[in-house]
Design a protein that fits this description.
Helices cover 77% and strands 0% of the residues. By secondary structure, it is mostly helical. Helix 1 runs antiparallel to helix 3, helix 1 crosses helix 5 and helix 4 runs parallel beside helix 7. It starts with a helix and ends with a helix. It has one domain. The longest helix is centred in the last third of the chain and has 39 residues.
Length: 174
């Protein structure tokens, strides 16, 4: 079981961290903060640069912490929150990745949730260094992640509705 957790953590954690590095630093052919924030603005996130930084850091740092098994379950929370936004704001309602669907982020989310529930296993820096977040810290963090997700979704929906209402009234005025 510990070896299986190591394989899952390292594979998914490093891939998610690299995906976050595309957004954060422009590595691996990514758009960096500026390019990604333009995309986030098109989804209705305001301020786009702020939400982009938060999401990119959650993805990059969460992926690294998950891969290392360090400060568990913080890595799972970062990866999980980034994947929840990716599923609901970018890929929904399509399922299959070949059609731009949420298949891949869902797998990452499932791994993050599973590792967050069972812990990082024996082959993790938390075990070596005796570190992990106590539940008195990790449970409120889970609440903050959920609150941040809801605020982000609500604000982007409100902005999108307001901008489409502006376009509708402009069209009527012509």
């Amino acid at each position: 079981m510990d070896l299986a957790l190591l394989v899952l953590r390292v594979t998914v954690g490093l891939l998610v961290a690299a995906h976050g590095a595309q957004k954060l630093f422009g590595w691996f052919g990514g758009g960096g903060l500026q390019g990604t924030s333009k995309f986030m603005a098109s989804l209705g996130f305001r301020p786009a640069l702020g939400w982009t930084a938060i999401g990119s850091i959650a993805e990059f740092a969460g992926g690294l912490l998950l891969a290392l098994g360090l400060f568990s379950p913080l890595g799972s929370l970062g990866v999980g929150s980034a994947m929840a936004i990716a599923i609901t704001k970018i890929h929904w309602p399509k399922l299959w990745a070949s059609n731009g669907g949420f298949e891949y982020p869902l797998v990452n989310l499932a791994v993050a949730v599973a590792v967050g529930i069972v812990g990082p296993g024996a082959y993790a820096l938390d075990r070596v260094w005796g570190t992990s977040l106590p539940s008195v810290i990790s449970q409120p963090l889970l609440g903050l992640v959920a609150l941040g997700y809801l605020v982000g979704m609500a604000s982007s929906a409100a902005i999108k509705n307001a901008s489409s209402g502006t376009r509708s009234s402009e069209a009527r005025g012509r």
